[in-house]
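Box 3.1. Reading complex inputs
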Amino acid sequence: MIKVRPVTLFIYGLTITVLAFIARSTEQLILLTLINAPLGIYLGFKRLKILIILFLLGLIGLFVNSLIFANSGIAVLDLQFITVREGAITSFSKVTLRLLTILGAALIFVTQINVRDFIKSLEEELRFPKDIAYALSVGLRMLNILERDAKEIQLVRVERGYRKVPLTPADVGSFLRPLLSLGLERAIWIGIATELRGFALRNPKRAEIKVGVLDILLYSLLILQCLAILILA
Amino acid sequence: MALSKRFTALDLTYLGVVAAICGVIFALTWNVYFIGSALGGPIIARIMSYGLWFIGAPLAATLIKKPGTAFLGEFLGAVVETLIPTYGAFTNIIYGFAQGAASELVYAMFKYRKYGIVQASLSGAVAGFPCVALDALLFGDIYPAEVMVLITIAAVISGAIYGAVAAIAVRSVRR
């Protein structure tokens, strides 16, 4: 199966995010959203359904925020207890479109990459220092284990009558200490093993960025979006 | 000086663990932010949650005590959060970069000689400024002047508190 290179997806996602912030007019944001959000949501719906649902729930808070701080201008909707004005609608729609674009780009990236290949390509193609690539790979390898530890800590907290989600600094402290202790205990042996295998002497491989048909298509789509944003500015 | 000459594999592994812990904490913080936002509005939400998003820098710096660790702790935590992924997606990388750089400045000001609770608290607090600035710049979170001041103070206080919490946690674990 032909796949897009992780570096291409990374560059695409990051550039689209930056474009979403550069775009100021509603037309620019609509264009970016229409290209990226449906594709991202289609690709990510199965695996990341909860994230998409959370995103949609978050929009309610965003609308309330717009009503509190940007409700000015011509009245658009009169709901007896509150009048929704043009300013609130404009502010809400712009931020929503921006967030949808960013979410779309992230979903395209996350669903299409293999994390191991991504880190490898960061080091080989984007020339990231091997130290950073190594730290990142350890972090991502440990993530599942630490997530499991975090769930166990949450379970223990509930059993002891404390809050599941740490909300206060004291909660965070009591949540962080065991997580850190478990993580560092594992890290010592991973670090020693890595050092003994000659990590310091290892020279990272460097590779040229190769592009396939799908990469060219994605870069073309990116360039088209950049041009469209410039034209609509 | 090249990074490889300064960090041992053990330091980098610690950094990786901090990044993973931060990824988990940053992901959970979205819940804290939404709960805070629903219960008390934007200022309470920021006091409750923003410091948690700045915790990577003081955590890594207090643990490893080497130049660059504050920046890398925050930035790598943000990269891990992006790959999980969370609500913030690629914006996490932009925030992580800016917040990490701001926190690193504090340790640089102390010439990388002190990695105590005060420095951790300050590094958390300082990260509040780029974060509020990015909120305004990226998400258009621009409120009336008095609200903006309150929001900035909330972010700074939250950062200071959780910076101290991170340093205390590291000290208690390493004792």
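In summary: Chain B touches chain A through 69 residues (CB under 8 Å).
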